[in-house]
Amino acid sequence: MTREELTTFAAHRHEAWNRRDPGALAAGHAEDGTVTSPMFGTVHGRAAIETSYRNLFAIFADWDYVADDLVIDGDKAVEMFTARATHTHEFLGMAGTGRRFQIRGALLFRFADGLIAQEQRIYDFSGMLIQIGVLKAKPGKA
Questions:
Q1: Confidence class of residue 55 from pLDDT cuts 50, 70 and 90?
Q2: Residue 109 above 80 pLDDT?
Q3: What are the boundaries of each domain within the chain?
Q4: What pTM value is reported for the model?
Q5: Which residue of 6, 17, 124, 129 pairs with 134 in a disulfide if CB–CB is 3.0 to 4.6 A?
Q6: In this structure, which long-range contacts are made by residues 67-71, counting pairs with CB atoms below 8 Å and at least 24 apart in sequence?
């Protein structure tokens, strides 16, 4: 894919994120694509990837994804992002807490045939769990 094609691809994904549209987001992944994330582990295949997006929007109904920067290098890209949401439904055995969180992270993509072949998500999962109350943090000693 050219830089222009990847930039257009990213713009369409941002629209799908804004609509919270699992089908449109999954359509950008190869049929045999892989996504690895702290939240859902490693997910194989477009159908399972769509399910992971659907689960994300069910757990965090107001998920807001903001792309900060996109760096493109050949068939690879990195997108920095900020996400904000409210924990509205069961997650890791805990009912929705109504607590909000914000995380910053990076999505690492490898493309093949115009689609995402591999996606690696990197973000502060422990920090997110602390913000929504799944984990408790001890204050550090001064």
A1: very high
A2: yes
A3: 3-132
A4: 0.91
A5: 129
A6: 67/10, 67/14, 67/17, 68/104, 70/6, 70/7, 70/10
